[in-house]
Amino acid sequence: MSDKILLGHGSGGTMTRKLIENLIVKTLGNPTLNKLTDAATLNLPSGRLAMTTDSFVVTPPVFPGGDIGKLAVYGTINDLVMVGTKPFYLSLAFILEEGIELELFRRIVDSIAEAAENVGVEIVTGDTKVVEKGKGDQIYINTTGIGIIPDGIEMSPERIQVGDKVILSGTMGDHGITILACRKGLEMKTDLKSDCAPLHRLVNAMLDVEPKIRVMRDPTRGGVASVLNEIAEQAGVEIKVEESRVPILPQVQGMCDLLGLDPFHVANEGKLIAVVPAESAEEVLSAMRALPEGKDAAIIGEVVAKTEYPEVFVETEIGTTRILEMLAGDQLPRIC
Amino acid sequence: MSDKILLGHGSGGTMTRKLIENLIVKTLGNPTLNKLTDAATLNLPSGRLAMTTDSFVVTPPVFPGGDIGKLAVYGTINDLVMVGTKPFYLSLAFILEEGIELELFRRIVDSIAEAAENVGVEIVTGDTKVVEKGKGDQIYINTTGIGIIPDGIEMSPERIQVGDKVILSGTMGDHGITILACRKGLEMKTDLKSDCAPLHRLVNAMLDVEPKIRVMRDPTRGGVASVLNEIAEQAGVEIKVEESRVPILPQVQGMCDLLGLDPFHVANEGKLIAVVPAESAEEVLSAMRALPEGKDAAIIGEVVAKTEYPEVFVETEIGTTRILEMLAGDQLPRIC
User: Would you tell me which of A148, A263, A264, B195 could form a disulfide with A173, CB atoms 3.0–4.6 Å apart?
Assistant: First the structure.
């Protein structure tokens, strides 16, 4: 096999076949995928089916704390678990740029295998395309996931009530600032790494304590600010955030100050925001803090009013108030 | 709204939101998609679930007989129906290149809406990423589809028996040669167009006549030759094709002769190959010919032996025999 990806690897002929058999299936194989049929036949328990899709175009494809493969698996898993789904199956589609090192591709596929194993999902169907040099950027991945939502779980912004607490599961902005530092060649000066992680275990622990969690979202592109604004808008409420309670690493805050970025707009890849009934918020928080992925969780705010003019505002540490807007324009492209 | 796609349209902030609400949801909307949750909640009848994924990178994105949007919907539908699935839901993920005209994007989304409506599937979840100019090529699309395989349908190459007939549903190579002509600026000199079409109706008609069809495949990348070789290998058989019986348009044959291409390696996007029990082959063929998408269907060959050395060979019109190999290397990149 060549040590680089060639256009022929996307031809649908013998080269494609060899790449798929010798590398992809060998690493990710299972009885369903191994059949290499046009569509995979699956078994699922009965229940409500959930489906989500994401394409990943992050640059660089390998960064401190993760790579595009891990990100693709966990990102899609996280979208499923945000609506309470138990994930079962993933599809996996590559768009490779001609000329990339086979070694890089192999590393990403290994990382995908490890991430899928870690979450307990199977890759059941896939696709590999190759585009000419200069028509892509090394590797783009689409993962689409399906799973089952257990009975009794029914999250929806409409259930949000005044007094509900807003919980953030950990420090804000780690992924975005890591990628930024990495691109600017600053990665040697900090031990910062991406928070890229799956949230299934955390979500299970939370729903065990309080099945009536109103809504959960993972603040990826657009950051915490964009997710809170989406929730406020969909629920028709005003949300207050207390800045002093928002967990953030000093390196992340420092980089944001230096670069004039608002950390509320910076992407996360292993964090969630949950709106939880006030009476069970402390108990949910304790369950979260008992897990490594929730050890820095905090109640960062609450729902203060129903309103026709949904809004998110921050009470700053010096006692002033500012409106927290959705990210406008683009802060940092290709974060995921 | 700007008349071009900007990086901000992929930021996850207000620009992303406006693009999704004002263009994508307005065109493709349905109660499930409109919720814009991280994962869509779906209803499916009971039965075996099937899943397939494909990324589309065809260039140019608009070509005679179709465009990348139509191709993405029909391509994924066709992969589902090849295993007898009734398609229900699609996910849709875009990778857009910064700077492309919003008008082109709108046209593609309209085309997706029309194709989905035509097949009776819903787009239930999606994703939009934007990459910098020069890091993509206008528009790449991933569609992942799920559906249900009715009881009693069980296609698999292992069921293939000696004597089974091989049917091709229509003329070979139309899509590949159209794209090639289009890229070389030859499109004005011919009325050739892509065969890009959904195959669900044809498959239903065939399974109504013969539920025990052994296997069906759509000969896209790699062409008829690659699909026949895959089938031969998976079934452990020798397949004979009679060249004189293979339907092909004179323009396609002419272009292939001119360019030194083997039409058996050229991609199709609205054709299928089926291996059918000998006793019902004529009846299946009649049912196919009764539909516009199967009007040129023909029995092109048969399974001649079980073997440890699977092989496909062609009896040429002049009475000689040649081995039909899978496509090696790449004939024409980015055909789909």
Answer: A263
